[in-house]
Write a structure and sequence with these properties.
Helix content is about 30%, strand content about 20%. It is an alpha+beta fold and about 575 residues long. Helix 9 crosses helix 11 (about 310-320), helix 10 (about 300-310) crosses helix 11 (about 310-320) and helix 12 runs antiparallel to helix 13. Strands 1-2-5-4-13 form a 5-stranded antiparallel sheet. Among the domains are: about 210-280 and about 290-335, Sulfite Reductase Hemoprotein, domain 1 (2-Layer Sandwich), CATH 3.30.413.10; about 340-420, Sulfite Reductase Hemoprotein,Domain 2 (Sulfite Reductase Hemoprotein, domain 2), CATH 3.90.480.10; about 425-560, Sulfite Reductase Hemoprotein, domain 1 (2-Layer Sandwich), CATH 3.30.413.
Length: about 575
C-alpha cells in the first residue's frame, strides 16, 4: 500500500502556484493571523506567521487572541547590500518592525513583529530598495550563501557572482509574489515580472522540503559547506579559480527522540568547472524534486534521499540528467569556520572591517548604540555591507581615508572592534523565544549570559583568547548549526539543553551527545573540568573539539547515520 503524501504536499498542489487565499487573509481585519494553510504558503514568499510567546499568558487571561506578528526574511545571495539599501532596511526596522535588524546564520536579514496590516507596505518598501523576499523560506532553493566578502580576491568575487546566478536561476517563476504583495505592478524587482505560467524547474509540487545552497572559498569554511544540501568548494590553482568541488546531502535538522532523523555532513560528489555550476545546481535540485520523500516530511531533505538511495545511485541519476560525468574531486584544505574579526586589507589596498554582532541582533542599547553607529556609517556612503553566515557584519571596500572616520563613529557609539574572548567571537545562537513557534528553550537571550560564565572558567586557565566554537539553538532544527560546533547546546525544554561536544573547528566533523537535559549550573559543572584538562594537556595547535575526541570524552562522529551511535553520557 502506497503511503499518502504529507499534508504540506496537498497544500502546495492546491495553492495555484503559491497563491492560496493569502490575499483574502491579509484583507481580513477580524484577526491578526492568517489561515494555517496560508501560513505554510507565505513561507515561500519569505515570511512566517508568529506570535509573541512572552505575551501569551496575559493575552489568554484577557481572552484576547495571541499577539500575532510576522517575521520577514530577505533573499540576499552572497549577503551583499549597498549603503542605500542598508538605510532603507534600517528605516523599515524602525517603521514596521520591532526596531532591530536581525542578521541570520544564512547571511541575510530578518524583521520581527510586523503586524498584518503593515505586511504589504513592508514588502513594498523592501521592493523599493531593489530587494525581495521570494524563496527566502519554503520548499524551494533558499538564500544562496557565498564566502563572506566578495572584495577579498578575484576568486571571492567570481564565487559571489555565481551565487547570484544560482539564486536567480532557481527562483520560483510564479507571479503570485507580485500579485499579492506588489498588486501586480511591474516594478524593478529581482523576483521577476508578474506573469502566469508553469514552474520550469519546480513544477506544481515544488520541492519536498527546504533546499540550501552555499559556496566556500578555502581556507575559510565560513559557510559550513558540509551542513547544506548543495555546496561548491572553490579550487584555486596558481592563484586562478579553476572550478569547484561539488558537495551534496548535508543538513542539520533532527527530531528529539527519533533516531531515524539526524544531522548529516555532505558527500563530495565530484568537480565541475565554473561554467557548469548553474547547470549542476539545477540537476541536483531536479533529482531531489523527483526522488525526495513526499510522504514523511521529517525525512524529506536531500540528506535522507542520499541515505536511502545511496550516493552511487544518486550520482548515476544526477550525471544522466547532466549529460556528462563530473571530474574527480581536487585537493583543498579548510582551516576554520569563523570570521576574522577586525580590520583586514585586500590585495587592492582597500580595507575591510568585520564587526562581531552578538547573535546577529543589531539594536541600540545604553552605551552601545550599534544600530545608530551602522546607520551613521551608511550615511557616509563610503563602504559596502556584507552579512556573514556567522551572523556578523563586514564593512567592505573602505579607503584608507575613510577608515579613521569609521573608527571614530564606532567609538562614539560604544562599539568595540575586539571582543571579550575567543569563545564569544565564535558563538552563534538562533532567535528562539519569544517569537519562534518551534522553540523549546531560550537561545539568543540566554547564550550571552552563559558565555559570561564560561569566560570566567576560561580566564582561570589562561584560555580567554582561545578560539572555541560554541553554538546554541532553542530546538533540534539546528538553525545555528550546533551539531558542527565544538560545544553545541540544543534546547529540550525550559532551561534544559542537550550538550554536544567534539565538532571539528574546520566544520568537517559532527559532534556527539555528551549530556542530556542539563541546566545552566550543570553545563558549567560539566565544562569546567574539560576546559581545565584542555588547558593542561592539549597538543600544539590542537582545537577543543579535536581534544575532546582524542581524549575520548566523546567518540568522533564520522557519518551522519552514526550521530546517535556510540553515545556514552556523562555521569558527572
Amino acid at each position: 500500500m502506497t503511503e499518502k503524501n504529507s499534508r504540506n504536499e496537498t497544500i502546495k498542489d492546491n495553492s495555484r502556484q503559491l497563491r492560496g487565499t493569502i490575499a483574502e487573509g491579509l484583507a481580513d481585519v477580524s484577526t491578526g493571523a492568517i489561515s494555517e494553510d496560508d501560513s505554510q504558503l507565505t513561507k515561500f514568499h519569505g515570511t512566517y506567521l508568529q506570535d509573541n510567546r512572552d505575551m501569551r499568558p496575559e493575552r489568554a487571561k484577557k481572552k484576547l487572541e495571541k499577539a500575532y506578528g510576522f517575521m520577514i526574511r530577505l533573499r540576499i545571495p552572497g549577503g551583499l547590500v549597498t549603503a542605500q539599501q542598508w538605510l532603507a532596511l534600517d528605516q523599515i526596522a524602525g517603521t514596521y518592525a520591532d526596531g532591530t535588524l536581525r542578521l541570520t546564520s544564512r547571511a541575510t536579514f530578518q524583521f520581527h513583529g510586523i503586524i498584518k496590516s503593515n505586511m504589504r507596505r513592508t514588502m513594498q518598501a523592501i521592493n523599493a530598495a531593489c530587494l525581495d523576499t521570494l524563496a527566502a523560506c519554503g520548499d524551494v532553493n533558499r538564500n544562496v550563501m557565498s564566502a563572506a566578502n566578495p572584495y577579498l580576491s578575484k576568486a571571492h568575487m567570481e564565487t559571489y557572482d555565481l551565487a547570484c546566478k544560482i539564486s536567480a536561476h532557481l527562483l520560483p517563476k510564479t507571479g503570485a509574489y507580485h500579485e499579492i504583495w506588489l498588486d501586480g505592478e511591474k516594478l524593478e524587482d529581482k523576483s521577476g515580472e508578474a506573469h502566469a505560467g508553469e514552474e520550469p524547474i519546480y513544477g506544481v509540487h515544488y520541492l519536498p522540503r527546504k533546499f540550501k545552497t552555499v559556496m566556500a572559498v578555502p581556507p575559510n569554511n565560513d559557510v559550513d559547506v558540509f551542513a547544506h544540501d548543495l555546496g561548491f568548494i572553490a579550487i584555486i590553482e596558481n592563484k586562478n579559480l579553476v572550478g569547484y568541488n561539488v558537495t551534496v546531502g548535508g543538513g542539520m535538522a533532527m527530531t528529539h527522540g527519533d533516531i531515524d532523523t539526524f544531522p548529516r555532513t555532505a558527500n563530495i560528489l565530484g568537480f565541475c568547472s565554473p561554467d557548469q555550476v548553474v547547470d549542476v545546481a539545477e540537476k541536483v535540485v531536479t533529482v531531489q524534486r523527483d526522488w525526495g520523500n513526499r510522504q514523511i516530511r521529517k525525512r524529506a531533505r536531500l540528506k535522507y534521499t542520499i541515505e536511502d538511495r545511496g550516493i552511487d545511485a544518486f550520482r548515476v541519476e544526477f550525471e544522466n540528467r547532466l549529460g556528462h560525468q563530473l571530474g574527480k574531486p581536487r585537493p583543498f584544505k579548510f582551516q576554520s569556520t569563523g570570521d576574522l574579526i577586525g580590520w583586514r586589507q585586500g590585495p587592492d589596498k582597500k580595507w575591510h572591517l568585520t564587526l562581531f554582532i552578538e547573535n546577529g541582533r543589531i539594536k541600540d542599547l545604553t552605551g552601545h548604540s550599534l544600530r545608530s553607529a551602522v546607520r551613521e556609517i551608511a550615511n557616509m556612503d563610503t563602504c559596502q555591507f556584507v552579512l556573514t553566515s556567522n551572523q556578523n557584519l563586514i564593512l567592505a571596500d573602505i579607503t584608507a581615508e575613510a577608515r579613521p572616520k569609521i573608527e571614530a563613529i564606532l567609538k562614539k557609539h560604544g562599539v568595540q572592534i575586539k571582543e571579550s574572548s575567543g569563545l564569544r567571537r565564535n558563538s552563534m545562537a538562533c532567535v528562539a523565544l519569544p517569537t519562534c513557534g518551534l522553540a523549546l528553550a531560550e537561545s539568543e537571550r540566554y547564550l550571552p549570559d552563559l558565555i559570561k560564565d564560561l569566560e570566567k572558567l576560561l580566564d582561570k586557565v589562561g584560555l580567554s583568547d582561545a578560539d572555541i566554537i560554541i553554538r546554541m539553538t532553542g530546538c533540534p532544527n539546528g538553525c545555528s548549526r550546533p551539531y558542527l560546533a565544538e560545544i553545541g547546546l540544543v534546547g529540550r525544554g525550559p532551561g534544559l539543553y542537550n550538550l554536544y561536544l567534539g565538532g571539528a573547528f574546520d566544520g568537517t566533523r559532527l559532534n556527539k551527545l555528551y549530556a542530556k537535559d542539563v541546566n545552566n549550573a550543570k553545563i558549567l559543572k560539566l565544562l569546567d573540568p574539560l576546559i581545565e584538562q584542555y588547558a593542561n594537556h592539549r597538543e600544539q595547535g590542537e582545537h577543543f573539539g579535536d581534544f575532546m575526541v582524542r581524549s575520548k570524552f566523546v567518540t568522533a562522529t564520522l557519518a551522519g547515520n552514526r550521530f546517535h551511535a556510540d553515545v556514552e553520557l556523562s555521569n558527572s
